[in-house]
Amino acid sequence: MFDTGTTAFMILSTSLVMLMTPGLAFFYGGLAGKRNILGIMMQTFVSLGITTIMWVTVGYSLCFSGGLGGIIGNLDLAFLTGVPFGQSFAGADGKYPEYIFIAYQMMFAIITPALITGAFVNRVSFKGYLIFLVFWQLFVYYPFVHMIWGGGIMAEWGVLDFAGGIVVHATAGFAALASVFYVGSRRDNQSPPNSIPLVAIGTGLLWFGWYGFNAGSELQVDAITTLAFLNTDVAASFAAITWLIIEWIKTGKPKFVGLLTGAVAGLATITPAAGFVPLWAAMLIGIAAGSICFIAVHYKNKFGWDDALDVWGVHGIGGVLGTISLGVFAMSAVNGQSGLIEGDFTFFFTEVIAVVIGALYAFLFTYLMLAVINLITPVKVKEEEEDSGLDFAIHCERAYDEGAL
Fold first, then answer.
1. Structural domain range at position 208
2. CATH of the domain at 326
3. What's the pTM value of the predicted model, to 2 decimals?
4. pLDDT tens-digit profile of 359-382?
5. pLDDT tens digits along 237-256
6. Through-space distance between the first and last CA atoms of the chain, rounded to whole angstroms
7. Which of 116, 167, 168, 350 is buried most, with the most CB atoms less than 10 Å from its CB?
8. Which of 140, 158, 147, 157 lies closest to 66, judged by CA?
């Protein structure tokens, strides 16, 4: 018999993580220019469809089947053969069906490549993006899921990543930076957000969904689940206020977009550490996220890297910072793992090495993959398409009527 409470909790967590993808679409859609709202939202929503197809056909199998100590799984569970309806999930002592674990992990797969899209808003063709969506998952996301969460080589090294600092945020953030280097700057990189209220709605949905993202990653209901939940909210709140204060001092004005961006930075940064660090560490991680991610965005602008919606500065740097923070602040009394503050230098350096490998590989592979895709179909849109906006040029739709434009 399944534990109905735990099963219900995992269904709820899966639903919350699914909600993050439309939340991301609203967040990015509000930050984009008026003529590129639908284009960026389309790139996010289409992952719901394509990634689901990939996940149930080959994705789950490549991530969670195959021998231990490898880089990628095998196809033994392709099309979910070998996973009978009603089979219990061994990783949670059989408390719920494996099908809900499959669905939960699928929601992570859906949102991870969608995070990247904010970097190259208004510059990448839809055909090029669809090819990118497929191959980035096959050659970046699936291997890192298997290596860390699927019993692969990094798991054997002792790498820990509670909910995706390496697997999700570092890989997506540095892939975003590579895509910016490849496609270059926008012709008009001064376009303001078209709807800050839409950004706020997106942030609210992301923040709400992140409770399922982090607390759900315990994969059962216990004290660690509640700690991860509280750490998530605390880090986001401390980061949001830290970003607000820094920007207020710098510009003389309290910025709403800054407050919202800081919250997302805190959410991304606490993700790998949420279930391994005490509450006081989550406070420090939030402050670090709000300040260091703000500095990263500042230097990104100074260097002229046109990461339109700050994916690298928020998610890339947040993922790296959070993973390193895990190596520092993990405490054995919390979840059985000591960090640097308890004298475990080996674990700290293991985490640092793993996140550097993840970031570098995602950056290099993404850049090379875009070059290969460009041989098949143009990755960057034509200048006239960029000038007119991708909503109409590619999709022949408009977010607003002509009067609003």
1. 4-404
2. 1.10.3430.10
3. 0.96
4. 999 999 999 999 999 999 999 999
5. 999 999 999 999 999 999 99
6. 58
7. 116
8. 147
